[in-house]
Structure formats: structure tokens, C-alpha cells
Specification:
Blueprint: H1 2-11, E1 19-21, H2 29-36, E2 43-51, E3 54-61, H3 68-75, H4 84-91, E4 108-112, E5 120-123, E6 130-132, E7 134-135, H5 136-143, E8 147-149
Parallel strand pairs: 2-5, 3-4, 4-8
Antiparallel strand pairs: 1-6, 2-3, 5-7
Length: 153
């Protein structure tokens, strides 16, 4: 269902034909990069956090990690990932398929500057065996992001 919801969202931007479904798992950055023949940094990793009681998504380059001090400076709170068992309820997608497309209305999306190193990136598409090839401009448009942030090491 999450895959269909994400694909419907992408259709609003004429991007649904860019969606790729795999027979194998693409839940991890390494798995997705291997399936796509891409660099791990080109995999747009979407992480789920709580800022107070609000769910936020931060999309980063796949080879980057969150820098706690940068995160705290940006969001004024310590980084707190959403517990795995709550991700589907709060975001709208299961862990391994979390993406900024077709998410719950109350979720705010941020894009990390680490993505700007690449002309094309591959976020998941609502399932643990999907991805979509997007330019940075397409990602900006389709993700309905609030702002660019710098929260990675």
C-alpha cells in the first residue's frame, strides 16, 4: 500500500515512470546501490526523527551520518529517531521504504546539503524493494521539502 501511495504522489509530478521495482531487497543503502549500480552516496537515505512531538524526515546522501551537534544546532533538540515500531504510524511507510513521497500530512521534510554533491539520486519509493531516479530539482519539487539543512558529518 505504501508503494502505491508513493507512486500516486509521484504521478502528480509526472515522475511515476521513473519508479523502479526490484525482485530483491533495497532496504539498505548498500543493497540499493548494488541493485542500481550506483555509488552509496547517490542513494537518498530518508531518516525519521521526532522534533518534540512532530515527525520529520531528513533526506541525506546514503554515505553520510547525522552529526549530533549540527542536528541540535538546526532543530534546537537532541536527535531522536522515531522507534521502528512507530515509523509506519507516524510517517506512513515502513522502515526500509521510508521516503518523502506519499507521507502523512503532518510530516515535515528536510533535505540535507550532502545530496547536492550528486546530479541524480535514488530515494526509496515506499517499499523495501523500490527506488526512483531523480535529479535534485525533481527531488525538491516532489518531496515538498521545507528547507535545506546541514546536519551530516
Amino acid at each position: 500500500m505504501s508503494f502505491i501511495k508513493a507512486k500516486k504522489h509521484l504521478a502528480k509530478y509526472g515522475l511515476e515512470d521513473n519508479v523502479i521495482e526490484f525482485k530483491d531487497s533495497s532496504k539498505t543503502v548498500k543493497e540499493a546501490a548494488n541493485l542500481l549500480g550506483a555509488k552509496e552516496g547517490e542513494i537518498a537515505k530518508t531518516m525519521s526523527f521526532l522534533v518534540g512531538d512532530k515527525a520529520v524526515l531528513i533526506v541525506t546522501a546514503g554515505d553520510k551520518k547525522i552529526d549530533n551537534s549540527k542536528y541540535k544546532k538546526e532543530f534546537k533538540v537532541k536527535a531522536k529517531m522515531i522507534p521502528k515500531e512507530d515509523v509506519k504510524k507516524l510517517i506512513g511507510h515502513d522502515v526500509g521504504g521510508v521516503c518523502p513521497f506519499g507521507i502523512n500530512d503532518a510530516v515535515t521534510v528536510y533535505l540535507d546539503v550532502s545530496l547536492k554533491e550528486y546530479s541524480v539520486v535514488y530515494p526509496a519509493c515506499g517499499s523495501g524493494n523500490s527506488a526512483i531516479k531523480l535529479t535534485i530539482n525533481e527531488l525538491e519539487e516532489a518531496s515538498n521539502y521545507k528547507a535545506w539543512v546541514d546536519v551530516c558529518k
